[in-house]
């Protein structure tokens, strides 16, 4: 069991309740990363499902949970021959902090009827760049859990040179050797810095709603994250992320709505 597996572990209490312990190692300056929290919820939802894979998850972030004990409560809605549907709530101190819906099914490594190409060609890994190591007092503990190597123009905002477009692109893998699985993909779809940074935004950009889909089980190796946005207005922005595996296949896609950071 890897550190990430332990950090997302869900222990069954009864038919519909799981105990979890939210790990402070997945914080972004205080709040816990949304993708990490979704992975925690998925552990419980898949265990409670008759199917093996979480093919769709949507979450509304009602309140920022803190590191420590919490529970995941599962409400089965329907189970058919090919898919099951459930409502999942992350509860802390008796209050629901994340509410969402999850669809589970069993994916097979079938040859696709149609497969598109990545919308952007990444430079070679050796030409990509890391973010500076965060200072210990920053509370940015998430950085230590994963390796991200960025397409250099998309982190120009670090030098005060944003591209002017909401975008972020990087190669991704876990810092501890681990082949990507659906839970790692839940983290990956929310691992990039907010795309609004490249459009000139700053500060913590809290996610309000995030939906992601598992499209295929990834091959071992680096993942490629391609993030973009379409509109930044009235204090809100959208972010879409495509995740490609080492073979170039689309394995996950997400869309979220978030607030533009202040400061």
Automatic annotation (TrEMBL):
Acyl-CoA thioesterase-like C-terminal domain sequence ranges: 126-260
Transmembrane segments: none
Domain annotation Acyl-CoA thioesterase-like N-terminal HotDog: ranges: 25-104
Source organism, top-level taxon: Bacteria
Protein name: Thioesterase family protein
Upper classification of the organism: Bacteria, Bacillati, Actinomycetota, Actinomycetes, Streptosporangiales
